[in-house]
Each structure stands twice: as C-alpha cells, then as structure tokens.
Write a structure and sequence with these properties.
The complex is a heterodimer of chains A (102) and B (328).
Chain A lengths: L2 H16 L21 H15 L10 H4 L2 H11 L10 H10 L1
Chain B lengths: L3 H5 L7 H19 L5 E4 L4 H14 L4 E5 L7 H14 L2 E4 L3 H6 L2 H10 L10 E5 L13 E5 L5 E5 L2 H29 L2 E2 L5 H6 L20 H11 L3 H5 L13 H6 L3 H12 L4 H8 L3 H22 L11
Parallel strand pairs in B: 1-2, 1-7, 2-3
Antiparallel strand pairs in B: 4-5, 5-6
The chains are: A mainly alpha (102), B alpha/beta (328).
C-alpha cells in the first residue's frame, strides 16, 4: 500500500463519517479539532476505524494530535505503524495485511 | 497583551454579601414575576452546588416555598442522602425522598451499562463496582480518552480503554439517572406550581458537564455564572455546613467513587477555575500558569480543551430548532 492510497482511504472515511459526504474543501493538513470535524468521541471512532481497517493496534501513548489530528498526521502515523518507507514501494507484510483485511 | 493588574488581583474573589443579594433578587424576580410560579423545587445531593442553591432559594423565596428532593439510586453514596437531609433540616424546608432505582431498573439502565462494560472487560459482573475515568491533562499532550475501571468484590481492579461503542453505551445508559431525577423534580414542580431550580456552576454550564434534558434542564440556574471557587465563597458566607464545604466534589453517578476531575475536567477544579477565567478574559497562558500552578504548555492545552468542550456543549445547550419561527 502506498501513502497516496492511505490518504485516499482516510479522506473517504473522514468525509463520509464526519462531514456527511460533503468535503467542504478539506485539506490534508487541516486540524480535525480546530475545524470542529472531530471531537473526543470522534477520536474513538477514528481509532476504531484505523484498528479495523488497517490492522494496527493504537496504543494509549499514541493517542496524540501529532498522530491523529489531520489526514497528513494520520497518514504519517499509519506509515510508521505499517513500516511503509517514504518510497512508494509496498512492503510485503503490509500488503499481505491489507489483502487479508480486504 | 493582557494587563498585569488583572492577573495580580485575586482573580476569583467576590463580595459574597453583595453577590448573595444580587442572586436573591434575581431568583425572586425570575420565579415570581417572570415564571409566575409559587416556589422552587430542587434536587439536593449533599454537594456544594445544590446546597448553595438551596440556601439562596430560601433567602429569595422563603423556606415554606422551597422543596428539597432526594433522589438516591443503587450506586449513590449514602453520604449524599445524609448530607442532603442535613441541608434540608438546617434550612427547615420540606423534603421528599424518591428512590429512583426502580425507575432505572425499569429502563434497564444498569443492565445496559453493564453490557457495555462487559464488552471491554469480559470478566465484569454486576456485583463489581465501576466508573469511567479520563487521563489527567498533566500527563502530556494526549487526547482525553475514557477508560473504564472495575473492582471485583475481592478488590481486584481492572482498567480498560473504552471503544466508542462501549463509551457511548455506558454514557447513554447512565444518563437515565439524571433524566429520571429531572422527571421527579418536574413532577413535584407540577404538583406545587413551582419552578425547577438547576444547580450547575460555571465550569459545568460552560463546559457542558451535564446531561441534556437531565440535570441540564431547569427553569432557572442561579449559580451558572459562578466559578467553582466562588461557589465555595458563597457557601462559607451562607453558612452551608462545614462537612459539605470540605467534601470533595463527586459525580455520584458510578458505584466506584469518581471525582469530577477524572470524569470530565481532567484538571483539579481549582486549576480549571483559573484556566477558564484566563480563557474568558483573554489572559495569556504564561500569566495564568504560575497562578494555577501549571506549566505554560499545560495551560495552553487546557485552553484548547476548554474550546473543544465548548464546541461539544453547543449541542447540549441548544433549544429545539424550528424550520420556521412561530409567534408565542
């Protein structure tokens, strides 16, 4: 899986779940909290989505805005969790994981 | 830039005699002139806020026009009823005891809550005690995500982070408690042609620490403009029993003892007072930090949290929205 795919999937989830299908010009760097897109309950929903859809376990100490407060932040966080390199190549482990989940 | 004179003054100090006079006049006007009701009913929990409102209502309306309601349920602390009775007895007002446990059992409040807890702690049984808690804001820049803490009859404590479904399940079920209480308050209000006096302080009112159509519902809220420390100043002036003034504020909603700090505010109420005051008055985090005993970064996080909770509270405060305004 590439970062662009993560971004695409995250955007789809955010727009569908929190913006009721209207993207409203949402930028990848927009803060979810500052824009009023996600509150503390919304963070729980986002965490559940990441765990279920990307097969990761979000640890307590990872529940920070640096990891979860924008599409860009979540993408970087997921890339680290899935051991994706900056290059577009897809690590076999992550690919297998996603295939199992899909 | 804020003026140093503002922060060097005793920020939250009030003149309790003058403030009492102001509130008493307002309560009398609201109840008798604006609402045209013959008195006030309020839930008296043995906590500082409801005690102060009871004292103010008696001063405003007379003790014969105030009804104190005690609404304990299965998870309530026995102290709540004892101290509530102490307030009513000291003031000489009429009081009524209504155990709301049967209403809650009928609504399957406990059953629904327990099922939600069990979804994250499978060994949980109804005989266990439980509460939900937030991490302290001082522990770094983390989201305030709830955990559930349970204690077995043998004293074994287990903690688990809540999933969204479990969190919503627990909160939705326990909200029956505040709504059942409010239902009883309005029963007695209707019976006596009284108004319902709500008891939130400013932290609770501003930050949405109430249940919509539960404890958030009332006809008047006499201390919603007062910071918590100001409520304590009024309590001392009004002569609220010492034991109530010394009692740590709790939610009295969960069977394990739970502070308001761990349930909602994530900071001590004293620190929250300073932070909310600072936020409301445009005082920088750097100036509030030494007064609140916090680091600047912690005050900045508190300011962000205050803003975030206010956004959530807008829905809680909102009256029903109409498609078209009607003439009333």
């Amino acid at each position: 899986m590439q970062r662009t795919e993560i971004v695409q999937r995250l955007r789809g989830f955010i727009i569908e779940n929190y913006l009721f299908g209207q993207d409203g010009g949402l930028k990848d760097t927009d803060s979810f909290l500052e824009k009023g897109i996600i509150d503390s309950t919304g963070v729980l929903e986002l965490v559940a989505h990441l765990q279920e859809s990307f097969g990761i376990n979000v640890e307590d100490e990872e529940l920070t805005p640096d990891n979860l407060d924008s599409i860009s932040n979540v993408t970087s966080y997921l890339a680290r969790k899935l051991n994706l390199s900056e290059a577009p190549a897809v690590p076999s482990g992550a690919q297998n994981l996603m295939e199992k989940r899909s | 830039m804020s003026t140093p004179s503002v922060v060097s003054a005793p920020l939250l100090k009030i003149d309790p005699a003058r403030e009492t006079e102001r509130i008493v006049a307002a309560v009398r006007d609201i109840v008798f002139n604006q609402l045209k009701r013959k008195g006030a009913v309020l839930g008296v929990s043995g906590g500082i806020d409801s005690s102060v409102v009871a004292y103010l209502c008696v001063r405003a309306l007379g003790k014969e026009r105030v009804l104190a309601l005690f609404t304990p349920e299965t998870d309530s602390s026995s102290d709540s009823l004892r101290l509530g009775r102490l307030v009513a007895g000291t003031l000489g007002v009429r009081s009524v005891l209504e155990d709301i446990s049967p209403i809650l059992k009928g609504a399957r409040c406990y059953e629904r809550r327990d099922a939600a807890i069990k979804s994250v702690i499978p060994e949980f049984e109804p005989s266990y005690k439980s509460k939900i808690v937030l991490p302290n804001l001082l522990h770094g820049n983390r989201y305030a995500i709830f955990s559930v803490v349970v204690q077995s009859p043998q004293g074994v404590i287990t903690r688990a982070r809540l999933t969204m479904e479990a969190y919503l399940g627990i909160v939705a079920a326990t909200d029956f408690k505040q709504r059942a209480r409010k239902m009883m308050e309005y029963y007695y209000a209707d019976l006596n042609q009284y108004a319902v006096a709500g008891t939130p302080n400013r932290l609770e009112y501003d930050q949405g620490f109430f249940v919509k159509n539960g404890d958030g519902a009332a006809d008047l809220k006499p201390i919603a403009h007062l910071y918590k420390s100001q409520v304590y100043q009024l309590a001392a002036y009004l002569g609220v029993p010492e034991e109530i003034q010394r009692r740590p504020p709790t939610t009295d909603t969960y069977s394990l003892e739970q502070s308001q700090e761990e349930f909602y505010f994530t900071l001590s109420l004293e620190k929250m007072d300073y932070c909310l005051y600072g936020r409301n008055n445009g005082i920088s985090a750097a100036e509030i930090a030494p007064l609140a005993g916090l680091e600047v970064a912690q005050v900045e996080r508190a300011y962000s949290m205050i803003d975030a909770k206010r956004k959530v509270a807008r829905y809680l405060h909102a009256a029903p929205l109409l498609v078209e305004q009607t003439v009333l």
